[in-house]
Write a structure and sequence with these properties.
Elements lengths: L7 H7 L17 H6 L3 E4 L17 E4 L21
Parallel strand pairs: 1-2
């Protein structure tokens, strides 16, 4: 998910060398949640917190979340992901 140069493009170039099929899903993709639910591996580099939620990922899938964003929670966003804040 996302259009970031790192890690999106390197991962997109690596996956076909391992005979993997992948779908690039920019944030404006129609029904992005359905695309994520159908995926075995999700690489998220969006920079927007909570774009995809836990229920959007099928059980057993691997998620690599490489996104970063400013947060309004009390934690320091660069140390703790916003979804981990209470």
């Amino acid at each position: 998910m996302g259009r970031r140069t790192v890690p999106g493009k390197p991962v997109a170039m690596l996956l076909p060398t391992r005979d993997a099929t992948f779908t690039h899903g920019p944030t404006r993709t129609t029904d992005l949640a359905a695309t994520v639910r159908a995926s075995d591996v999700v690489v998220a580099a969006v920079g927007r917190p909570r774009l995809t939620l836990g229920e959007d990922v099928k059980p057993g899938s691997v998620v690599l979340d490489a996104g970063s964003s400013a947060s309004s929670c009390r934690c320091q966003a660069w140390r703790t992901p916003p979804r981990a804040c209470s």
